[in-house]
Amino acid sequence: MIIQSLVTYYEALIKKDSDISPPGYSVAPVAFGLILRENGTLKEIKSLALEIPEKKGKFTNPRVKVPQQEIRASGVKSNFLCDNSAYILGIDNKGKPERTLQCFEAAKLLHKNILGNSDIPAAKMICAFYDKWLPENAAENEVIIPYLKEIYTGVNIAFMDEDFSFVHDNPAVRDIWRQRYESGDGDVQRRCLITGKTAPAAILHEKIKGVRGAQGVGANLVSFNANAYESYGCEGSQGLNAPVSKYASFAYSTVLNMMLNKKNRTQLLGDTTVLWWSEEADADAEDIYATIQFGGFEDDEQKLNNLMNRLITGKPVADDNININGKFCILGLAPNAARLSVRFFYRDSFGAILEHNAAHYRRLEITKPDFARRYLTPYWLLNETTPPQMRERTPSPLLAGAVMRSIIGDLPYPAALYNAIIIRIRAERHISSDKAAIIKAYLLKNSNNTKIKEGLTVALNEENRNSSYVLGRLFAVLEKAQKEANPNINTTIKDKYFTSACATPAVVFPHLVKQSVYNTSKSTYGKQNNYKIGTLINMLDSSALPKRLTLEEQGLFILGYYHEAQSHFGKTRANNDTNNDTNNDAEKTEKTNESGEK
């Protein structure tokens, strides 16, 4: 399904006349152009390096469409009209002159087989070059010497004519190469599992480059290189174990490499590189998804806010030009030595994906300070599961994949997400708006208790009589009373008792309520706090406090505390009285964290 969807996407891009490579061509960085005279002799070498605008003094080699390059593991295989110095010039610095000569002879044979029967000047020029060129004298050629050091690094060299045009761009040469590519001479014919047509089968699939953590030379999405992976009767047949045509192999690898080479088409979550595409090649739909799922890649906060507001409130986010019934795909790839692991793959209509994301963001809605992050995208959501003091906050790879599957498929959130947030709150003794939002979303989606779901609101729910929620509110009021009685206090009851109050309230609350009598007697707002404490105690289901709270009940306790504290924070901020800010320390910590956002 993944490869089939990618091939469909490739064909849609070709129809739109995009810059993507046509069949038989691939994109490769080319460092030098080898300029030949009509008689095949070397005239000069042209450096094609381009300066990187944002990095003064740094250069990069342009990526050029060249005839499709061979997949080389260890054997000698020449590419057509563009290759490294061993094949083009017969020289390198690897200390294996016999093998280097084999590379040159292989290139000579390939080019003469393809171009030898043609009468066009460009074909005669290339054949004449291979007839006249002497590899043993190449390193001493005065044209090559100035560039020899860089040529030895293995960069690509392409043939050019005296007009500084690539030979492979010559229309007549392109026709010759197309006929050669489509004929599939010597290839094994098989029925392709992707297209259903009988066609030359790909023995080796092209490598995918750009997945974070994978090998720099690329990694395979499909490969059979050990007996354990091969079917009976297909031993040593590699790609014939699951026959995919050369065309399908080229198509899916080309679009994958294209997307991985664009910063605005990928997002890293943990060790997973996430890609997305519309099978109709609808760029507007792809941009909308990038915005709602990852916050977009343009520094346009107003555009982001408008789009997210429309999404969450159920208003259309796409205009009539976008087909919301068109198929949309999201793929997560993770490194695995020389191969790629598929962390997740999801394919559905674009409209369904928008609805799933809208439901997710609605569950995350919660009251929060003005300075807090407005929309909790998956990147920041997963960051909340890691210690804030980590230099690189890398979440669990398995958790990242599970969370993405939950969001895009509208599935229950993984229990590991909820557990990680509870652990971080216990360790940090700080409840940020992001952590509270995650707990609320988890309980709304995963809880089987209808009464619990009905009581979970964006802001404080004074009608919620769930004992865990009420105990959380009570703890926030007790902390507020303590702060008002002791304005300069450094350690509050939250620092000492929050974890135990959340897990075993029957052990902690009698002591805290008793202590509150002293605090309210000293406080300016003592009567108000006394009334609030009494009201909350009366809301409890019975006089007996619960001995233990389950993990679900602990989440309700945390939400009750957060909602109550935020209600105090809003009132004191309106009254411009920072001494009564019951959540001041926590919010200052959150603001500090916000300043270090990525």
Tell me about this structure:
The protein has 598 residues and is an alpha+beta fold. The chain folds into 3 domains: 182 residues, no CATH class; 57 residues, no CATH class; 218 residues, no CATH class. It has 21 helices and 13 strands. The strands form 4 sheets. Strands 1, 2, 5, 6 and 7 form a 5-stranded mixed sheet that branches. A 4-stranded antiparallel sheet has the order 10-11-12-13, with helices on both faces. Strand 1 and strand 2 form a beta hairpin. Helix 16 packs parallel to helix 18 and helix 17 packs antiparallel against helix 18.
Number of domains: 3
Low-confidence stretches: 571-598
What is the tally of helical segments?
A: 21
DSSP helix fraction: 40-55%
Q: Tell me, briefly, the overall form.
A: elongated
Count of extended strands: 13
| Beta-strand content estimate | 5-15%
